[in-house]
Amino acid sequence: MLGGLGVATLGALVAPSCRSQGSPTVTAGPDAALPYRLVAAFPTGIPYVAAGAPVRLPFQVARADGSIVDDLPDPVELSIWRDDRQVGDPVRVRPQTDGTASYLPLPATFDEAVDYEVRGRFEDTALVAPVEVVPPAAVATPLVGAPMPGSATATEERPLEVDPICTLNPQCPWHTVSLDAALGSSAPVALVIGSDVYCTDDRCGPSLRSFVAVAGEFPTVTSIHAEPFRNPKLESFPEDVSRTEVTEVLGVDWEPATFFVDRAGVIVARADGIVGAEELRGLYRRIA
Questions:
Q1: What is the rounded radius of gyration, in angstroms, for the C-alpha atoms of the chain?
Q2: Would 265 be classed as within a structural domain?
Q3: How large is the average pLDDT for residues 241-267?
Q4: Structural domain of 273
């Protein structure tokens, strides 16, 4: 469900549940007998990767016991395959570790709506992860290169029945401007949708906190934090929770989800799932 890293009702991310803190692990899969596995840290199980659209796909390397490998070489070479043939040149990806467990953000554009594989190697173990690519019309969330839809987000003056408007403690300062107002101001916009209640592990929780910390370094960008739920509960994931307007408008069924929008209102980049402070700074620079 929205708010968990794992197979869920509203959406899915392949990784552990984000409802409890702990050392980063992933659940066992079909490759659990291998010493290492390449695991997706982006939404899977739903139409997410669209043919023809640039996408950022973060991966992690997991041990057989599910723990995440943090001592990856720099860089790690990843390649894209289709029908057992390599597509294009390998990509040398720098591991990111600034505030998060180690991950590999792979930039890619897939030409056709078919099944692909991402392949790599770590300590003599072949790493393979499937990527399902679908037609653009099948993806509910606006893609990179598309206009950013307008939506109201909770602010201190207009909370929109979101309580609390920020689950971070102390509350973050990025609740002064609503998304729809920001998009009408001709200023670049950075939006993160995330909760500090359900996304708390070493992959999920730090992404929101990194955004809040990095946003202040870019005063020319209007930064906005939006909660995914109107009535988050600290004890457990409640059955009666309702989604905020922005998650409905953007078709976001996972958290965290981060959008970077230029002055023309066009989505320049997205960073879904795990994202660290260093990578966030690079994404901010693209619109600042």
A1: 18
A2: yes
A3: 93
A4: 179-285
